[in-house]
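Sharing a chain and its predicted structure for anyone who wants a worked example. Both blocks are below, sequence first, tokens second.
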Amino acid sequence: EPMGIIGFKQFSNYGYKAPVIANYLDTWEGGNLSLQVHPVMSYCQEMFNADFGHHESYYMMDTMEDSSVYLGVKEDVDFDEMISAFKEAQETGEFDDTKYINNFPMKKHDHIYVPGGTIHASGKNTVVLELDIFGLQTFKLWDWGRIDFDGKPRPINIEHGEKVIQNEIRTEFVKKNLISKRQEVASGYGWRKEFSGTTEYEPFAVYRYFFDKTVFLETNDVIHIIVLTEGEEAIIESPNGDFEPFVIHYAEAAFIPAAVGQFTVKPYGKSASEECAIVDCYMDFSIK
């Protein structure tokens, strides 16, 4: 039944909806994704009668030496000048991203948070696990001069985009609040737990576990997303035998219903003697 899947905590806030999703962005041996911005909740409600803003995070599943993300506006940028430059780029096909937008190198297992209103893009040569609170609005600001079928730069949404860019999200704010510090928060026999998120105001929690033995987890009446981010195979089981064990493989996501309660994850098969890693993502209803 639906309540057993999403849990009462989530139902009391969002009704019969589970806003967190998982998907992949793949720019391996490809180009940068478009510079874009997602709206905050107030703009979505006012303009689109939508339930959510759009917040997301990028977890680096794999990277090359030149992998990076574009995230936030540089400190000394004049906002109006940047908006004019975005608009002019539609005619000229040129935009100086190095002047306006931060670019941070990324390594495997790095993690960033992208709140609504943040200019961002996944850079080339990167495989990103994207964990979102999913609204439907994406406003593209610059697509690197790529040409559409009409021979002009691909269309952007600057009319909406300029209204939702949060001018305060600049270099120092990004470094302090939007790039994960990977702090360890717990450990035990054969496992350690890190806070993979970046700030306490994220509406969803993301934790990371490295383990070569069994890890015990608890849903706490909220649906969870578990993704295997290191190792070939892991097995998810009920310590009480309440459900059939099932195996997840590298990069696969498993949705754990709220009613499951306690469950375990441990290395399995080809990875039985190796250290594995998972990320555990869920809506965070704790009192901050």
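Comments welcome. The two ends are 30 Å apart (CA to CA).
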